[in-house]
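User: Need the bound-state model for S-adenosylmethionine:
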Amino acid sequence: MDVESVRWLQSDDGQRVLALAAALDEPDPLRAHTALERATPGTPSDRLAVALTQAELRVRAEDKFGDLAGSMYFTPDGLEQATRLSVATHRAARLNAFGATTVVDLGCGNGGDLIAFARAGITAAGVDLDPVRVEVATANLAALGLGGAVQVADALDVDHTPFDVAFCDPARRSGRGRTFSPDAWTPPWSFAEALLARDACVKTTPGIPHEVIPAGVEAEWVSDHGEVKEAALWGGRLATAGRRATVIGDGGLATLTEEDDPGADVTPLARFLYEPDGAVIRAGLVTAVAAGVGGGLLDRHIAYVTAEAPFRSPFARSYEILETLPHREKQLRAALHERGIGRLTIKKRGVDVVPDQLRKRLALTGDEEATIVLTRVDGHGTCLLVRPF
Ligand SMILES: C[S@@+](CC[C@H](N)C(=O)[O-])C[C@H]1O[C@@H](n2cnc3c(N)ncnc32)[C@H](O)[C@@H]1O
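Assistant: Bound-state model below.
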């Protein structure tokens, strides 16, 4: 997509063709093109393709942007890189709580974060090297009736000092990897690191090693419905903890820091098992969950918690332990057959098992459904039959 196409999509003609493209119920791309051509005689073929792609991107974007997706604009890569609305809204809420009234987004892409800042009532300015993305981000602000300004510029040349907060979500040249490879960042890690000396936020991958986080900077791992989405680094006066895990779910948002972590020991297997959220694990706060449920760790090196008491926690999935089954495959198969278990969810931590392969080898038949946890307790391979609580 080019700048001209983004402008055309917003014109009366573009809106009409886009609406017709969105209304087509035709999964086959060639047939969809033909149908749209018939419905809009005289529209050039490349415009039809632009409208069809945009309609498809809007559907794909619903996962990240919910109802807003239907009126937004995207480039395929820009959508892939965009921060989901729930996470960006949380970031904007932190800026609001801090009292920021202006923010500059240094590499705003399609505007995932930019629109969240603007929706939170913060005056938001965005820059990006890519003119098409600038056009798309501008279109998104307009489509959602939001204020803000976007322009083509190199983040490295922008004077960000007049803004209350600077935000940067560097692109990862190496693609989608969730590991931390700062050499592949643009703007580069050195730029992001320097930015964190002021009131700033830098979005990074969940795999960022703790040791590269600059002193005095808060690292916040954020998960949405159990999936870790990012580690946000907060610099200057925005840093309010060292390590933080924030979990977003249906019930809202909950957050935990190292101040909530008195530490916990390894304890014997109790009645309940807790599987901490990925954000908690990445933040190194599993022991905070253990303390929170009045329990301990199953093993010093494994992120499972056990406790006598049943709790519901936003920071962990809870299971009641029904019994301990044999962990050797042959005996385990017999035990599962005996119980009529035909459908099996296999969870594992700290043991070398590929659940799908094991499930196939177990060749289960039967009407019952069950969940097993394969792990180590006190250094020994263990299989627990559990029930989600
Ligand atoms: C990961 S994307 C940002 C996504 C955005 N936060 C969102 O939610 O939609 C990173 C963006 O930074 C831009 N970028 C990379 N280097 C830049 C630079 N030196 N100056 C300005 N923009 C840059 C890329 O073009 C890309 O659009």
